[in-house]
Structures are given as structure tokens and as C-alpha cells.
């Protein structure tokens, strides 16, 4: 069973629920899918679902799933990687009023490039990538506090330099 989850963001993501449901109806998706649809106003016709799940119930469903389909949110990506679950992300987009900006596009692209997730951007890609999920093994992600520290240090140096330059200009 594949878990379709939309995260906890309070805007609807019915586009993804509708695409997956229609894929099941049309026979393009043959896998068994259970959905946590959150704030979606679209009610699935061809898959079992719940609106919101209690934390323990969600964790049980997640652990028993073979893979996950979700938006490209960092919480879901981190969870899938920590559970070593194959994840297919489908970014929320501003043009559909699913998000306030399109940061999920770059998140999806970056995590796909590094081999941590599969990503789809159209319904056709989604159907194709669902078929690839069963054989997809995500590359492990290792944290690097030293690298983060260096990046933050460079950022702070740039801020200090910019502030110093502005002070000189004002004098």
C-alpha cells in the first residue's frame, strides 16, 4: 500500500488527490493507495482515505506503507528519509493557489537530483513515477553540521561587510 499524504499545510491540495484518484479510476494507477487528504474539498471515489489522522495512527500507516506520495514539504521529505521510505513528491504551486510561493519546485528538484526522492510535475509524470516507486531506493541523507556552520559563517560575514560598506557610504 502506498500512502498519499498532503502534510499539515492549511491550504487545500485537491489537485494531487484528484490526479491520483482519476489515475486509479482510469487504470493508470494499479497500486493500492490510502490517502490522508487533509483540507482537500475533493472526496476520492477510488481510494480509501481519512481527512486528518492522529499522530500514532499516521505513524502506523506510514510504517506499513511500501512508499509515499506527497507534496514537496520538508517535513514529509525528512520523515520519509528517516523511515527509509521511497517518496514521490508533487510540488504545490502558486498558480493553483496551493502555496504562497513556488519554493517546493526547487525543493523537489534538489532532492531528486541528489537521489533522495522521485519528483513529478505533471499528471503523466506522476503516473509514470508511481510505477517506478516500488524499485526506488532513496539515497541516505547525512547531516553535516560543519558545512551548515561554514555557510552560516559566510552569510554573516557578507552581512557584516554589507553593513560596513553602507556605513562608509553614509559618512
UniProtKB/TrEMBL annotation:
InterPro entries: Alg13-like, Glyco_trans_28_C. Its main location: endoplasmic reticulum. One of its GO terms (biological process) is dolichol-linked oligosaccharide biosynthetic process. It is found in: Endoplasmic reticulum. The keyword Glycosyltransferase applies. It comes from the Bacteria. GO terms for molecular function: hexosyltransferase activity. Keywords: Endoplasmic reticulum, Glycosyltransferase, Transferase. Residues 49-139 form the Glycosyl transferase family 28 C-terminal domain. The keyword Cytoplasm does not apply. Pfam families: Glyco_tran_28_C. Belongs to the glycosyltransferase 28 family. This is Glycosyltransferase 28 domain protein.
